[in-house]
Amino acid sequence: MTCPIVLLRILLSLAVWHQDADLSREARSALYAPVVETICRVGRTPQEQAWLATQAYSETTLAKYVIEGRCADGPPGIRCDEGRATTEWQAHGHCTAAWTAPTLEERREAGAQCAIRTARHGLTVCGLLGSFGFQTGRPLCSGRWIERNAVPRVQLYKWILSKMQEGQTDD
Mind listing the pLDDT tens digit for each residue in 63-78? Predict the structure, then answer.
């Protein structure tokens, strides 16, 4: 199977953002489709694709308001880092194109590209935990944030990657 089909199935199997609980599976499929297509385009390998899926889900639970580019419409306290982040990967100001590209699709792609560049660097410096830790804007390889946030992301990443590998052999 191709990346978008496999990855969409996987993301649909994850818990939905509580405010989107009323969306049908078909509506969620349509909502997630552009995110999945971006992940499959930007990720060079299944590992990078699984990483991008993990980061997007971990940051936003793929909430409709984020995917639609409406961060200001989110609940108080979680409006895309209170206006400091954008796209499903919660790109901050250093990811200029994620903020300034003319279309939502281009901003989404720029956010994914920025996130994966940072992840590659973190991976080189301190492994899989660092690929997530470096997303904080600091070179985190250990500490409280890593234990609370990166460790669960690594677990989700490994699960998503295993499901991707299983799905690609289900043809």
Answer: 999 999 999 899 988 8
